[in-house]
Amino acid sequence: MNSxxxxxxxxxxxxxxxxxxxxxxxxxxxxxxxxEEFLEFxxxxxxxxxxxxxxxxxxxxxxxxxxxxEVRELAPDVVLATFRVFDExxxxxxxxxxxxxxxxxxxxxxxxxxxxxxx
Length: 119
Fold this sequence. Notes:
DUF4440, NTF2-like_dom_sf, DUF4440 domain-containing protein
């Protein structure tokens, strides 16, 4: 059984991976990280499902950094990650939350939401 500290490190690494160009532009890499039932409510107001992310070019390139990262266990093998992101392109902060579920031994993101914030 993994400790919450180990799970936190793992999920942070996966969240950071989702911000990398190599992952965001690769439908194959995105398939590895996004659950089939993946749903996102973006800070832009758009709603996406997994298939929306797997087209040519993936989900696009961003330059973002994660701050104030935390995880909370919701159930065995299900965690909620909450954090802030600074978007260097748009020069804004957003609040983020993701639900990760362990599927066949691998963590997969099932839900993500971005919310604009003032700072």
